[in-house]
Write a structure and sequence with these properties.
The protein is α+β, with helices and mostly antiparallel strands. Helices cover about 55% and strands about 15% of the residues. The longest helix is centred in the last third of the chain and has 31 residues.
Length: about 260
C-alpha cells in the first residue's frame, strides 16, 4: 500500500468510525471497505490528472502545515511523508481548478437570496471594551489585594484605565492601553462575557476571577443589534452563494469522474 493510501485509509477510519482501521467493528467492516474503495478510486483518478504538474514550495509548505498534526501521529519515513504531502498538493490543485470554473451567481439571484434571508444579516450587540488582567501565580490573595486599589482608581477616574493597563496588565492588550475594541458574544471567556454584557455604558466591572487571574472590564460604549448595510450584506450573500456553487460543482465533477472510472 502506498504511503498516501495508508494515510487516507487511517484518516477515513478516524474521521467516520473514530478508531484505527484495524479496530473497525465487524458490523461496520463492509461499510468501511466500500467507503475506502470509493475514496481510493476518486483520489487516484484526481491525482492522475495533475501528476505532471510542478509543485511549488508555497503549496507544499501550506499542505505540510495543514497535515502536520495527522502526519506526526503516523510512522512515516521522511520520504513517505513527502509523498503524502505531494499527493495532497495534487488533490488540492485539481479541486481549486475545478472550483474556479463554477458558475458565479448573478446579481438577481444574490438579491433574491438576501431578501429571503434578511434576518441573518444583523450586526450582533457589541461592547467597546477595555481589559486589565493580573495573572495569578500561586498567590491569589496577593493578586486580589493588588487589583483592588487599581479598581478604585479607575472607578474614580476612567482616564486612568489606559495608564494603569499599560503599567500593570498582563494581557497583550496592555500595549494598547487595555483596549480590546468592539467585542461580540463568543469572543471572551464565559465568565468575562457574562459580566461584560451586564455592564451599562461607561461602567467598570468589579474584579472578576478566572483561571488566568483577576480581570477588570470597562464597557465604554454599547452598539445595539442593527441590520447590516445592504451593500455589505449583498457582498456576504454573494460570497456564500459562490462558495455553495463551487462545492456543488466539485461534487458533480467527482460524481462524473467516478462514473468514468
Amino acid at each position: 500500500m502506498m504511503p498516501w493510501e495508508r494515510f487516507a485509509r487511517r484518516r477515513l477510519a478516524l474521521t467516520r468510525w473514530h478508531c484505527e482501521p484495524e479496530n473497525i467493528p465487524a458490523a461496520h467492516q463492509q461499510a468501511f471497505d466500500r467507503a475506502w474503495a470509493r475514496q481510493r478510486q476518486l483520489e487516484q483518478a484526481v491525482v492522475n490528472m495533475t501528476r505532471d504538474e510542478i509543485i511549488t514550495d508555497d503549496a507544499r509548505n501550506a499542505v505540510a502545515a495543514s497535515l502536520a498534526p495527522q502526519l506526526n501521529e503516523s510512522p512515516f519515513s521522511p520520504a513517505e511523508r513527502q509523498a503524502v504531502i505531494a499527493h495532497h498538493v495534487h488533490l488540492e490543485t485539481q479541486f481549486a481548478e475545478i472550483a474556479s470554473t463554477a458558475p458565479v451567481p448573478d446579481e438577481e439571484s444574490v438579491l433574491r437570496w438576501y431578501q429571503q434571508h434578511r434576518a441573518q444579516f444583523m450586526r450582533p450587540e457589541q461592547r467597546l471594551t477595555s481589559h486589565l488582567l493580573l495573572t495569578v501565580e500561586q498567590n491569589d490573595a496577593e493578586v486580589r489585594k493588588q487589583i483592588t486599589p487599581i479598581y478604585q482608581q479607575i472607578s474614580n477616574n476612567r482616564s486612568a484605565f489606559a495608564r494603569l493597563a499599560r503599567h500593570h496588565s498582563h494581557c497583550p492588550s496592555a500595549l494598547e492601553g487595555g483596549r480590546l475594541g468592539w467585542v461580540s458574544r463568543g469572543l471572551l471567556f464565559p465568565e468575562l462575557e457574562k459580566v461584560l454584557f451586564t455592564l451599562q455604558t461607561d461602567e467598570i466591572s468589579q474584579p472578576v476571577e478566572t483561571a488566568l487571574g483577576w480581570h477588570l472590564l470597562w464597557c465604554e460604549q454599547i452598539r445595539q443589534p442593527a441590520p447590516m448595510a445592504q451593500e455589505e450584506a449583498l457582498a456576504k450573500a454573494r460570497e456564500y452563494l459562490y462558495r455553495q456553487s463551487q462545492q456543488q460543482w466539485q461534487r458533480q465533477w467527482l460524481a462524473s469522474l467516478l462514473q468514468a472510472h
